[in-house]
Design a protein that fits this description.
With 220 residues, the chain is of the alpha/beta class. It has 3 domains: 124 residues, 5'-nuclease (Rossmann fold), CATH 3.40.50; 54 residues, no CATH class; 29 residues, no CATH class. Helix content is 39%, strand content 19%. It has 7 helices and 10 strands. The strands form 3 sheets. The chain has a 4-stranded parallel sheet with strand order 3-2-1-4. The chain has a 4-stranded antiparallel sheet with strand order 6-5-7-8, with no helix packed on it. Strands 9-10 form a two-stranded antiparallel ribbon.
Length: 220
């Protein structure tokens, strides 16, 4: 087995539970596991673990899916999924080209991750490859007036509440079916800018400045 290894597998020291001939981690994973104890732990597997930055086209595929499905993935999560796709694609191309050896005839790529978001994203991508749409999507729902939105908002456009949560939905025949957690209660939150000022509404000048600064940070 060739393994793409997520942060949680390393932090929880679970590498010994998997039999892999070759392992890969991304630069973001390396940043997340930096620390004296974990460095010593990783050294035990240094002979078969390589650091690889995923290709841009695979990163874009995951970024696009995250935006479309409202997934909550970190940069490290996106890199792990993208690298899994990239290596699977490379293995498929080897087999299609007839380049079959004793080493790759039974070889498979697996993503070693305990993260539900990563696993869900991988399932969605496999479904997309097969042309099915059975997986659930996510939308954002105002807890106060129950309005639904395709993208994450800080304030509801109808009632201006900042109590907006992500919910699982299924879209069929133009209708939306919600899957709500039983007994779920959202804690009241306060949106603050980088100076610690509480932001109350979209009309607030401080909020507009907060959005501009956030946009500049994302562009950089």
């Amino acid at each position: 087995m060739i393994a793409v290894i997520d942060t949680n597998i390393i932090i929880q020291r679970k590498l010994s539970e998997y039999e892999f001939s070759k392992g890969f981690i991304t630069p973001s994973i390396l940043v997340e596991v930096r620390g004296e104890d974990l460095n010593s732990y990783l050294d035990l597997y240094a002979h078969k673990i390589e650091i690889v930055q995923p290709d841009e086209k695979y990163l874009k595929k995951v970024y696009d899916l995250q935006k479309e499905k409202n997934l909550l993935l970190s940069v490290a999560d996106i890199e792990v999924v993208a690298l899994t796709l990239q290596l699977n694609g490379a293995l498929r191309r080897e087999r299609l080209s007839g380049w079959i050896t004793k080493e790759n005839i039974d070889e498979k790529i697996e993503c070693l991750s305990l993260d539900n978001g990563v696993q869900h994203c991988l399932r969605l991508l496999k479904c997309a490859d097969k042309g099915t749409t059975s997986e659930r999507d996510f939308m954002f729902r105002c807890v106060s007036c129950f309005s639904l939105y395709e993208e994450k908002l800080d304030f509801c456009k109808k009632c201006a509440s900042n109590l907006i949560t992500r919910v699982s939905v299924k879209k069929e025949n133009g209708k939306i079916k919600l899957f709500l957690k039983k007994g779920f209660k959202m804690k009241k939150t306060e949106l603050k800018d980088k100076y610690g000022n509480i932001l109350h509404s979209e009309d607030q000048n401080a909020y507009k400045m907060h959005i501009r600064e956030k946009s500049r940070t994302m562009q950089n």
